[in-house]
Amino acid sequence: MAAPTGPEPSPDCSICTRLHDFIAAWRVKEPGWHNAPVPTFLPAGGVASVQLLVVGLAPGLRGANRTGRPFTGDYAGDLLYNTLNEFGFSRGTFAARPDDGLELIDTAITNAVRCVPPENKPVGGEISNCRRFLTPTIAQFANLRAIVTLGTIAHQSTVRAFGQPVAKHPFSHGGQSDIGNVRIFSSYHCSRYNTNTGRLTTEMFKGVFGEVSSYLNGIAG
Ligand code: URA
Key word Methyltransferase present in the record (predicted)? Predict the structure, then answer.
C-alpha cells in the first residue's frame, strides 16, 4: 500500500522527473533561490481559521520559485495581493518579498502544481501527480467555505480533488459551483498574459472576489 501523503511535498520531491530535473538545473544556476516545491501560504490564524482557499496554477520561475511564497515576485501576485487586501482577505503591505509582513486573514493560497514547470506549462501527468498534495491541502481546512480557482487547470484539478467529474462543474470566468459545503468561484488566471490581452481586467478579477466576500459575509450572517 502506498504511504499516506500529507499536504506538502518534500523539498526534494522527485515524483515528476521533468520538474525535479528542471529545479535541479536552476539550483546550480541560482543557488540563492528557493528552487523547491512552494508550500501553501497560510494565515496567522492557522489551518483552522481558513475559510477561503485560492488555488493557482504553479510557481512562476522568477516569482514563487525564487521567493518561496505563492504569487510572490511576479506580475500575477501584484493583482492578486492588491485584490485580497482590498476585500479584507489580507493585511499589511505587499512588497513582493516573503518577509514583507503581509498576513492573510482566514485565507490560504496554494498551487495545483507545487514545482515550477518549464514555460509555466505543467503537463497532464504532473497535474495529476501533484493532486496527491492538493487533496489533503483542501481536506485539512475543516472550516473551508469558498475556493477561488485561477484558470482552467487549477479549477479542474480542484474539482477532481473533491472526487467530482469536471463535466459536472465546468470552468467559466465568474462561474460558481457548490461541492458539499464549499462554493467554488472560478476566474481567469491573473497572469500578465491575460491582463495584457484584455481577457481579464482588474474589474473582472475584483468582481469575483466581491462575490466571494458577499457569500462569506452572508454565511456569517
Ligand atoms: N505564481 C504562483 O504561485 N502561482 C501561479 O499560478 C502564478 C504565479
Answer: no
pTM recorded for the entire structure: 0.97
Domain residues for the domain of 186 are 17-220
Residue 10 lies in a domain: no
Q: How far is 102 from 100, CA to CA, in rounded Å?
A: 6
Q: Which three cell numbers stand for residue 13?
A: 520531491
Percentage of the residues of the chain whose pLDDT score is greater than 90: 96
Task: Say if 5 falls within a structural domain.
Answer: no
Q: Is the CB of 74 under 6 A from ligand 1?
A: yes
- Does residue 70 line the site of ligand 1, with CB under 6 A? yes
Cα(150) to centroid of ligand 1, in Å?
Answer: 9
**Backbone dihedral angles phi then psi of residue 167, each to the nearest 5 degrees:** -65, -25
- For residue 112, report the distance from its CA to the centre of ligand 1, in Å: 9
Do the domain assignments include residue 7?
Answer: no
d(CA 105, CA 124): 32
Q: How many domains does the chain have?
A: 1
CATH code where residue 70 lies: 3.40.470.10
Dump pLDDT digits (tens) for 102-147.
Answer: 999 999 999 999 999 999 999 999 999 999 999 999 999 999 999 9
